[in-house]
Amino acid sequence: MRLATRIALCTALTVPLLVLGADAALLGLVTHDLRNQQDSRLQDRAAAALPDARTLLNADRAGRPQVEANQHRKLLDSASDVGVRVADANGTLVTQGGPQPGDAVGLPAPGAGVTTVRGRAAAGGGAADAAARSWRVLAVRVNGATPGTLWVFVPTSVTDPQVQAVRGRVLLIALLAAPVSGLIALAVAGRATAPLRRLGRRAAALDPRAGAAGFGHERTGVGDIDDLAAVLESVLARYDEQAERTAQALETARSFSAAASHELRTPLMSLQTNLDVLTAHPELSAAERADILADLRGDHRRMLELLTALRTLARGDLVEVEAFGPLDLAEPAAAAVAELHRRRPEIAVDFSPQPRIDPGSYPELASGIRVFGWEAGLRIVCDNLLANAAVHGHAPGQPARIAVRLDRQDGQAVLTVDDSGPGIAPQDRAAVFDRFHRRRDSPGSGLGLTLVAQQVALHRGTVTVSTPPDGRGCRMEVRLPLISSDANTVALPARRDWIGAAPSG
After folding, report:
1. Do residues 334 and 351 lie in contact, with contact meaning Cβ atoms separated by under 8 Å?
2. Do 491 and 467 touch, CB atoms closer than 8 A?
3. CA 18 to chain CA centroid, nearest Å
4. What SS3 string covers 282-330?
5. Is 173 helix (H, G, I), strand (E, B) or coil?
6. Of 424, 332, 327, nearest to 379 (Cα)?
7. In this predicted structure, what is the pLDDT of residue 124?
8. Of 19, 342, 378, 399, which is most buried with the most CB atoms under 10 A?
9. Nearest Cα to 170, choosing from 17, 10, 373, 272?
């Protein structure tokens, strides 16, 4: 059922109920006003009849029947349309006339005001009076030589026609109000909900490929409709974002599969060849078997490193901004240096983690160089820079010597890794960050520096290759924005596909 129809039905049911409620209150007020009019009329009739009642009592006591008959007639004329009854001080009925209750009905004493009594009408009343069962009565004391009591009566049913007329009109209005109010409410609700229907049609006609950009809601000035449209746009935007991330995750999975199958082909073929040789030639000498087993171990290590690097690269493609937070760059750098010492104790590493700054000028940085980053990602950067320097940063036959420095320059955290190797020619420096780029003598997977470039890009930084100031070896320099009070968030790239396509650094 449409909203406008619901509103019309609710209005058609509610308005008659309100009219009936008003009818009950109105009938109460009308009955109260009519009762007051009756009481005022009784008091007026009693005041007009009191002198004649006094004369009537005196004539009755004096035994003057002719005067008594004249006063009886005058008493009824003065009382007009109400019933009267006169009794002497002993309670003996002197005269009565007009509509009134029967003699068996108890009457109020003088001074009680206008009261209501119930009982059948006295004999001789009209057909309408005979049906009356309640009466408004006013008792007045008659003072003088012959005291007594004057009662004036009016049946409460006198006001019934007026009350019934009011009730009938109100019921008629209630009956007419149901369809009329329903039709009016249907027209008004239809016009009021028109923007909602237009919004529904626009949402129904939305091309799923267009997303939030294709919704194109124009403000209507109706707050609820505009708020609902804003919610729909927000939902569509989140849906677009999630769909993009899902598509990117699927693309990353496809790229991972393609890269793994391509790069694993060579070591797997080598494994197969060596296994075939071992199977076909059981007579091989111990030295020859040892060489083949060494090749098998090398191929296994290469495949393991390749899969680990691809998995790490995919992890960087899918990381969310919630993983980022404030941290000291010295922490992942120190952890990477300690890990290299553990695995390669023969390599000399000179590590200077403390920033060379004035604590008075930058008190928030006095304890270290802080950036807003992903701790696991920055550890990947440090591990791979040190691993690259350990493999390539030494002269033939000499152990590698590595220098790691942390500094602050121009609002950036600067991490430099220097080695004592042959260095990288300027024309080859950009290519070292490409996916699967390896020197001929490199034992690695060719993804180490690609991981560095990926993580630096995620952290809004830069990585460059140069020569140390002494002119020997290679320098890898990473620059990341320092954390500040007004820049403690990171905006990740909208599209990340480092595992599928190799960027140039």
Report:
1. yes
2. no
3. 35
4. CCCCHHHHHHHHHHHHHHHHHHHHHHHHHHHHHHHHHCCHHHCEEEECH
5. helix
6. 332
7. 54
8. 378
9. 17
Q: Which two tokens stand for residue 216?
A: 């194109």
The tens digit of pLDDT for each residue in 208-225 reads 666 666 666 666 666 666
Q: Identify the CA nearest to 35 among candidates 167, 136, 164.
A: 136
The DSSP element (H or E) to which 60 belongs, if any, is helix 3-62
Query: Crossing angle, helix 223-263 and helix 265-280, to 10 degrees?
Result: 30
Q: State the pairing for strand pair 370-373/348-352.
A: unpaired
DSSP code string of 357-421: --TTT-GGGTT--EEEE-HHHHHHHHHHHHHHHHHHSS-TTS--EEEEEEEEETTEEEEEEEE-S
**Backbone φ/ψ region at 119: left (φ over 0), alpha (ψ -120 to 50), beta:** left
Distances (CA, A) of 191 to 4, 180, 218, 219: 9, 17, 18, 17
For residue 328, the cross-strand partners are 370
**Is residue 66 classed as helix, strand or coil in its secondary structure?**
helix
Q: What is the pLDDT of residues 47-90, one digit of tens each?
A: 888 888 888 888 888 778 877 788 778 877 776 678 888 888 88
| Tokens of residue 169, six digits | 């009109």
404 contacts 340 by C-beta, under 8 angstroms: no
CB 83 within 8 A of CB 152: yes
Q: Would you state the torsion angle of the CA atoms of residues 456, 460, 465, 469, taken in this order, to the nearest 10 degrees?
A: -110
DSSP secondary structure, 117-157, as one string = EE-PBPTT--HHHHT--EEEEEEEEE-SSS-EEEEEEEEGG
Which pLDDT does position 497 carry in this prediction?
A: 59
Average pLDDT of the chain, as a whole number:
76
| pLDDT band at residue 477 using 50, 70 and 90 as cut-offs | very high
User: Is pLDDT above 80 for 200?
Assistant: no
CA-CA distance, 12 to 478, in Å (whole number)? 74
Q: Comparing C-alpha atoms, which of 364, 366, 374 is closest to residue 327? A: 374
Question: pLDDT tens across 120-152, in order?
Answer: 766 555 544 445 578 888 898 988 878 899 888
What's the confidence (pLDDT) of residue 8?
73
Q: In 144-180, which positions are buried (b, 16+ CB within 10 angstroms) versus exposed (e)?
A: eebebbbbbbbbbbbbeeeeeebeeebeebbeebbee
CA dist 124 to 157, 197, 236, Å? 18, 74, 89
